[in-house]
Structure formats: structure tokens, C-alpha cells
């Protein structure tokens, strides 16, 4: 017996439905080098079941991807991660996590399109993987904040040391977070929204 197509249509899960009070939606991208915790952040903070495109890493990628410092990583994002969080009753953020390996960076331009702002996740053990990421955002003119993911074995640095190492303008916020913790990741997004609001107010004509 063949089922009618209408029989296959299912309603969205209650927890996935957009709150009826929501009046504004904003696209945010979560970027960073390979293995800095982008997928972890999207998963921890999303109020819906996140969409991920992780694939198991194989020996075939050994000569292609630089896994220095993250040798124990077994999976990687090959397209994007997607999640959603309501910051209040009216404002909803749609989160798009980008793939970290440079061979997938051709996808970034599409993900940047329409984005109001970005979170750059940084691993202080491998700051060099963040340089090209920041450069791409500056080239695309996407405002961003820096979120230092506090890995247990990473050294801690003074904010101004990090600002100098990353060659950041003084106005770009730098915050420390634990991407595994929902409250910490949410604070990063709140910092970004405050920065975007402040920047918009500053650019308004008198």
C-alpha cells in the first residue's frame, strides 16, 4: 500500500516552533579555525535540536588538514552547524557555525551573506589559526567579537596581550568563555549584540 504524501507531513516539534512573541530575527555566524569549539558552542546554546554536518575524520585527510594541537579530534564540520536561541521574548538569533578547515572556506561567503555579526572563537594554544579568519571577516565587513574558548590546558593571557597578538582595534570586545556551557556561550552572544547596538548608535548621524 502506498501512503499519500499528505500522510508523511509532520508538524514541527513543539520545542522547535518559533515563539509567538518573536518580532525580530538576526543571523549570526560562529567562525574560527579548525577545532576551536564552534560546533560545541552552537550545540550548547541552541534551544532547538541543532543541525550539524559533522563527518568522521579519516587517514585520507592527514596530508590535507593541519591537526596540530588537536590530534585527538575525530570528527569535523564539512558544511555548517545551525542552531537558534531566543535572547528575550522578541529577539531570536539564528546561529550558523562555519567549517574550520581551509579547504571548506569557499562556503564562508554564502554563510556571511546577510549576517549582522560574528563570534570568532579562539584557542590561545593556536592563535595563528585565527589570523586568516579575522582577515576574512574584516574583508567582508562583518563586525565581530572575540570569544576565547578556555581549554583546560591552555594558558591565560591578559586581554591587551591578546588584542596585540591578534592586531585588533581597541573597540572589538574580547571575552573568555567555556563553549560547553550554555550560560557562558549565551553571554558571548549578548556581548556581540551589545557591541552591534553600540556600533550602530555611534555611526548614526547627529
Structure report:
- Belongs to the GPN-loop GTPase family.
- This is ATP/GTP-binding protein.
- Keywords: GTP-binding, Hydrolase, Nucleotide-binding.
- Helix 4 links the parallel strand 7 (144-149) and strand 8.
- Helix 1 packs across helix 5 (182-203).
- Residues 1-6 and 60-65 have low confidence and may be disordered.
- Strands 4-5-1-6-7-8 form a six-stranded mixed beta sheet, with helices on both faces. A two-stranded antiparallel ribbon has the order 2-3.
- The protein has helices at residues 38-45, 108-112, 131-140, 159-166, 182-203, and strands at 24-32, 54-56, 75-77, 81-86, 91-97, 117-122, 144-149, 174-177.
- The chain is built from five helices and eight strands; from the N terminus they run E-H-E-E-E-E-H-E-H-E-H-E-H.
- The N and C termini lie far apart (70 Å).
- By secondary structure, the protein is an alpha/beta fold.
pLDDT < 50 stretches? 1-6, 60-65
The coarse silhouette is globular
The helix content is 25-40%
The count of DSSP E runs of length 2 or more, i.e. the number of strands, is 8
User: What is the CA–CA distance across the termini?
Assistant: 70 Å
Oligomeric status: single chain
Spatial ordering of strands, largest sheet: 4-5-1-6-7-8
Structural class label = alpha/beta
Query: What is the average per-residue confidence, as pLDDT, rounded to a whole number?
Result: 81
**Cα-atom Rg, whole angstroms?**
18 Å
Number of helices: 5
Protein name: ATP/GTP-binding protein
Keywords: GTP-binding, Hydrolase, Nucleotide-binding
InterPro entries: Gliding_Motility_GTPase, Gpn, P-loop_NTPase
Organism: Streptomyces sirii
Amino acid at each position: 500500500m502506498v501512503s499519500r504524501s499528505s500522510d508523511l507531513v509532520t508538524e514541527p516539534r513543539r520545542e522547535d516552533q518559533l515563539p509567538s512573541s518573536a518580532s525580530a530575527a538576526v543571523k549570526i555566524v560562529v567562525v574560527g579555525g579548525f577545532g576551536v569549539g564552534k560546533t560545541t558552542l552552537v550545540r550548547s546554546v541552541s534551544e532547538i535540536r541543532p543541525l550539524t554536518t559533522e563527518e568522521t575524520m579519516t587517514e585520507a585527510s592527514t596530508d590535507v588538514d593541519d591537526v596540530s594541537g588537536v590530534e585527538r579530534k575525530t570528527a569535523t564540520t564539512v558544511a555548517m552547524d545551525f542552531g537558534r536561541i531566543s535572547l528575550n521574548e522578541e529577539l531570536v538569533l539564528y546561529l550558523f557555525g562555519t567549517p574550520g578547515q581551509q579547504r571548506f572556506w569557499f562556503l564562508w561567503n554564502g554563510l556571511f551573506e546577510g549576517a549582522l555579526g560574528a563570534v570568532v572563537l579562539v584557542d590561545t594554544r593556536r592563535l595563528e589559526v585565527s589570523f586568516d579568519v579575522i582577515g576574512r571577516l574584516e574583508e567582508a565587513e562583518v563586525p565581530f567579537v572575540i570569544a576565547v574558548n578556555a581549554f583546560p590546558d591552555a594558558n591565560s593571557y591578559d586581554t591587551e596581550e591578546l588584542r596585540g597578538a591578534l592586531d585588533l582595534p581597541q573597540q572589538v570586545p574580547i571575552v573568555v568563555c567555556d563553549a560547553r556551557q550554555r550560560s557562558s556561550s549565551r553571554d558571548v552572544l549578548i556581548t556581540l549584540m551589545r557591541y552591534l547596538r553600540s556600533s550602530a548608535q555611534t555611526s548614526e548621524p547627529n
